Each structure stands twice: as structure tokens, then as C-alpha cells.
């Protein structure tokens, strides 16, 4: 039996999860970088959607776009983020669903 605290965290995409033996190592930080169009935003959206589906809470900053833009961009690559809560400094009160 695998303890949840030691279980990998899914990237939300089967290929990378397979390469990473189930996903990211819980509790570690990862930097995703690459040229425009390489899938950084798509990976982030899939990761966020997988966390929402697993009923997890975690910060996922989108520093250069609003929560609405983040949802629209994610929708173009597949993941559904309607249940994700965003902390959006551009909206009054800071939180937007």
C-alpha cells in the first residue's frame, strides 16, 4: 500500500507520468522552461486539472494572464478548469472561480 504523502503527483498527461514513474515527486519544486509553443502552458493546465480532479489544493500561479485568459487558454488544449479556484490579483477580493 502506498502512502499518499509518498505517492507521485500526476502531471495530468499519461506520457510524462509514464516517463516519471507515475508523476512528479511530491514536495519538490519543478521549473518548466522552453521556447514558445513547446507546451509549458498546456502542461501547467493539465497538471492543475489533475490536481482539481484529485481534490488537491495547491498554488498554480499564472503571473502574466488573468484567470479568464487562463481558463480560455486551457480550454484550447483540452483540460477543463471550471472547478479550479484562481487567486487573481486583477479581480477585486483577489479570488475568482
Characterization of the model:
This protein is mainly alpha-helical and 97 residues long. The chain is built from 3 helices and 2 strands. The chain has helices spanning 14-19, 40-53, 67-77; strands at 86-87, 95-96. The protein has a two-stranded antiparallel ribbon. Strand 1 (86-87) and strand 2 form a beta hairpin. Helix 2 packs across helix 3. It starts with 13 loop residues before the first helix and ends with a strand. The mean pLDDT is 81.
Protein traits:
mainly alpha; globular; 32% helix; 2 strands; single chain; two-stranded antiparallel sheet; 97 residues; 4% strand
Largest sheet: 2 strands, antiparallel
Write the H/E string, N to C.
HHHEE
By DSSP, the count of extended strands is 2
CA radius of gyration = 14 Å
Sheet/helix structural class: mainly alpha
| Outline type | globular
Amino acid at each position: 500500500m502506498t502512502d499518499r504523502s509518498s505517492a507521485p503527483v500526476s502531471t495530468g498527461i499519461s506520457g510524462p507520468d509514464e516517463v516519471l514513474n507515475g508523476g512528479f515527486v511530491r514536495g519538490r519544486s519543478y521549473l518548466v522552461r522552453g521556447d514558445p509553443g513547446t507546451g509549458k502552458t498546456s502542461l501547467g493546465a493539465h497538471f492543475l486539472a489533475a490536481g482539481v480532479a484529485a481534490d488537491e489544493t495547491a498554488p498554480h500561479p499564472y503571473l502574466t494572464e488573468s484567470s479568464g485568459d487562463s481558463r480560455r487558454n486551457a480550454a484550447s488544449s483540452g483540460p477543463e478548469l471550471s472547478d479550479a479556484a484562481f487567486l487573481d490579483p486583477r479581480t477585486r477580493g483577489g479570488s475568482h472561480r
